[in-house]
Design goal:
single chain; alpha/beta; three-stranded mixed sheet; globular
Length: 271
Amino acid sequence: MKLEQEQLLLHSLNFLVLPSRTRGEIELEEARRQHEAFVRLLREIGLDVIELPPDEGLPESVYVEDTAVVCNGIALITRPGSQTRAKEVETIRAVLKKELDLPIVEIADETAKLDGGDVLFTGREFFVGLSEWTNEAGARAVAAAFPEFPCTPIKVSQPKHLKAMVTMAGPDVMCVSAGKAAQEVLKRIEREATYTYQTITVPEDEAANVLYVNNYLIHRSKEEIPESHKVFEDVVDFNRRSLNMSELSKAGGCLSSCCLLFRRAKHIRNL
């Protein structure tokens, strides 16, 4: 089974409203330019992009990936580990249900914590990172929402989301950093996986988070990840595009965290 090819992308513009803890570190104008370049690239490779307006009351809502897990036309609404993000979830729930007409699955267990950044879908199975944002009850919620796929919890020892350490770089191909913590996570995945995957190992930790969509691999720029950029050049034999995420990443975000990908449905009304 291949990863879904034709996708609709839900993307928030809320990085224009920055978390106060990083406001002094981020160059706002450059962040805006990087954000615009990201959206433009996604459109160039054939994705439909729905952009949500910024909300000054939701400084972390640029990380739209954390609010839902969408697969096979069903949206599981998450329960982010940070309670301050509850309103973000309400916004995304309304868009997915009312505007895009997707069936919604809610998490009934009030003890559950689940961030979308901890949910890795390979096209064949789910791995759910057990981190400071996601717990066992959250992993069980993913398994219950998508029973047609194997779902395996994977312990994440560092204060990072699972997809900051490993992502899908192509059909049955994982991208993982060479760092000790990421390699430990990869070993756990390989030990528990139902299927076999190839891996691309990159020297820089920040290079591990990539997007594979519409037969394109999207990764960070040569200026940011020079050694890993060379690895991608050497081993990837299909379409590649790169983006500068230097400012967008300063608040802890990744390529995947700034978008929510799902298959295009018929008769969708654009926002």
